[in-house]
Amino acid sequence: MADFPPAHPRMGRVQRSVTMQATVSALHVYPVKSAHGIERARVPLTPRGLEWDRQWMIVNPRGMFLTQRTHPQLARLVPDVRDDALVLEFPGLPPLVVPLSFRGTPANVRVWDDACVGLDEGADAAGWVSRAIGEELRLVRAPPEMRRNANPKFAGLTPAPLGFPDGYPVLVCNEASLEDLNSRLPQPIPMDRFRPNVVLRGLPAWAEDRIDTLTIGPVTLKLVKPCTRCTIPSIDQDTGAPSTDPAPALKQFRFSRELLGVMFGENAVIVSGTGMSLETGAVAQASFEV
To answer: What are the residue ranges of helices labelled H in the chain?
Structure first.
């Protein structure tokens, strides 16, 4: 298992199947799309992914979502989900408390090419996020009845429901792959630059390219598509400032002609285990196609 071929997208060809054991070393949730993440020791799994992950987003007056690609200061917006409220903090502003009840007005919003209907969280929330980011904006939430699914070309014909992530409910990353990448960079970068949900320890570098399914207790994830990376991994996730950009190094050995981008991490859909929880330290059984 230590000698994986150079990483490339899944080509649909299986020579043999093997299983390897790994450990869940970290779990991350991003309640507000493109804002700061939260590390959790234990997270329930919902049909849309990790609980509270990308269930809110900030949009402009046209309903288009904001991202760190154009607004890196979003990294400084720190969310927390408490028993009855989403709490947002930003330097220089008092915290914003948004009740968890679904009380907003329906609003047409967009995530890339997907047109959705979100719930507008009201004038107070809009004023707060506008002051934080410095332009007229609104805060919206994904309602329970929202119909948005991962791309069936990769996710398969069984619908994989989403909140507001870019395209898939779960992102899986591998510590050893980051170590290998860091050995090629002028300065190492932390894993949070890649904004994973599930981080694995104990696999060879780039082994995630060949994982078919990942079973963590009662939860099974199917890894369906390499994650092509934008400019966000070059942004310090604590300050929002530009930092070491891994893209030039990734382009040397992780560029996909099929996907037209550099790859780090694997997008996954949920096969089973909704309603159960993922925990750090849990054993993960990785089934590989090699």
So the answer is: 123-133, 152-155, 175-182, 247-253
